[in-house]
Structures are given as structure tokens and as C-alpha cells.
Amino acid sequence: MGDDVKGRRGYRAPRRAEQAAGTRRAVLDAARALFLAQGYSATTVAQIAERAGVNVDTLYASVGRKPVLLREVVETAISGTDRAVPAEERDYVRAVRAAPTARAGIALYAAAVAEMGPRTAPVFSALRDAAARDPQCARLRTEITQRRAANMRLFAADLRATGELRPDLTDDEVADIVWSTGSAEYYVLLVQERGWTTERFGEHLADLWSRMLLAPGA
């Protein structure tokens, strides 16, 4: 009988973990939808819980309070998974860093930015709007912005190591060019407002960065 009890417990543990993960996904999906539709300030935790089909206590237990919800919505949009993933652990970053040439690394990163655009641009745009009115949103936006800038400097250094970058550009200038043109704002202008496809946007970034950043003949 003892073995039977242990077996049932072993069966229930993965099932509980799966249910918890499903609840977390439902809460984050609901928070994302409401933050984008009506803004962070106008969205209540009760509304998120109702949309997710859970009670407020379950929402708090599965993710956390409203500022944590916002952070998780941003982080999961960036990672494309149900959790935050550090930049160095993302598949596309590893591929970019392993690229044999600067041009190949640029093409890989441009494709990744375009692929992320549909999920990150709306969230970043909503965060920007919320930051104008809410101090917590402003702090989160500043943190994410600074983190992106630091990652772009690492990207610039990797490109520099290939010996293919223009010598008249500093790494900071390279990073700023990639940071600005790879932003949610630039994506929104071309894809959402001018009707470009994400594929065309990615090809444009690869061409733009190659022309602007690489030395002649690279």
C-alpha cells in the first residue's frame, strides 16, 4: 500500500506542476490583453483574475501583485516563453555570437528582432505610455531600456572582434544605431503604420546595419 501511495503522489506532482503552469499562463495572457487594451493604470487585479478565470488569491500565488504582473508580461514578451530568460541564454544570442562573420551575425540578429516584433512592440509601446503616468512603470521602462543598451554594446563588441566594422565608428555609436533602429518604435512605424511585413522589416534591418556598420569590402 505504501508503494501505491508513493506512486499516486509521484503521478500527482507533475500534474500539479502542469496545472500551476497553466494558471500562470492564463494570468499573464489576461494581464497582457488588458494592459494593451485599456492601459496599466486602468486595469485592476480583479479584472485580470476574472479574465483568467481564477480568484485574486490564486493570481497572487501564481504570479504576484500588479507591478510583478507587468514585469512578467514584459519579460515573457522578450523571451517568447513563459518565463524570463537572460540574454546570454537565448538561442538567437548564442547563434549570433557563434556566427563566423559580422555580416552573418547581423543577419541573424535582424531576423530575431523582426520575429520578436509582433509580441514585443505592443508591450513596449504600452509600457512607454504607462511610464508617463506611473512611477513603477517608468522605473521598469528605464531598467529595460538600459539593459537593451548594454546588450547592444556587447553585440557591438562581438562585431568589432571580427575586424569587419567601420573604424570610424565607436562601439557606443554602433550600439546606439542598432538600439534605435531595432526598437519597438521603429518596428511600429514600418510594420504597423506603413504596412511592411515582419520579413521585410528583418531584411531591411540586416541591409541597413550592414551598409551602415561594416567596412567597405567586409
From TrEMBL:
GO molecular function ontology, one term from the record: DNA-binding transcription factor activity
Pfam families: TetR_N
Domain HTH tetR-type: 21-81
DNA-binding stretch(es), residue numbering of this chain: 44-63
Keyword vocabulary terms for this entry: DNA-binding, Transcription, Transcription regulation
Protein name from the UniProt record: TetR/AcrR family transcriptional regulator
Upper classification of the organism: Bacteria, Bacillati, Actinomycetota, Actinomycetes, Pseudonocardiales
